[in-house]
Each structure stands twice: as C-alpha cells, then as structure tokens.
Amino acid sequence: MKPYLLQPRTGSRLALVLLAFCSVAVARDLDQDEALRLRQQGVILPLEQVLQKALDRYPGAKLLEVELEEKHDVYVYEVELLTVEGVARELHLKADSGELVKDKED
User: Fold this and answer.
1) Which domain covers residue 88, as residue numbers?
2) Of 15, 57, 69, 77, which is the most buried if we count CB atoms within 10 A?
3) What InterPro entries does the annotation carry (predicted)?
C-alpha cells in the first residue's frame, strides 16, 4: 500500500486554509468584571466617555450594542449605532483614549 501523499495543489490549499484560520480575528471579548477591573486600574476610559464620542459623531443615533474587545494587546470599544437615516454603523474606538480607529457601515 502506498503512503498517502498530498498533491501539490491540495497542500497549497491546506496551507491557505491554515493561514486564514490562524490570522482570523485574534479579538477577545471581555466580560463586565474584566472591564470594571481595567477601568478601576485606569487602563481604559469609562464607557460613557467613549460612547459620547461615538454619539457626537452621529447626533440622534440610537445605541444598538457595545462590546469591549482586546485585539493585539489593544483594548477597543466596538459600538454599533443606528443613525437617524436608518443606517447601522460600527465604530471602533480605542478604550484608553477614545480615538476613532474604524467607522464603517454595518
């Protein structure tokens, strides 16, 4: 019986799949206890302060969801809003400064 050998094309596909899997978002959602601890330690800004920056960008928008994530050792608030025009927006703001990192239609 011959040993099973990967064909060159199959091996390439497998390598691409593994590469894609390894590079998929290395974001980690933080729970409320972790968020509170980081806030008390002064590592991140209060949610209210960062949220106000997001709402100032889209006056009259409704808050849909907020998550605190850690991406590549950086804490990011992910804020989802529904604008007065009915467009869902996803904003990423650095949790330590409130700096806007991303603003896209969701």
Assistant:
1) 27-105
2) 77
3) PepSY (IPR025711)
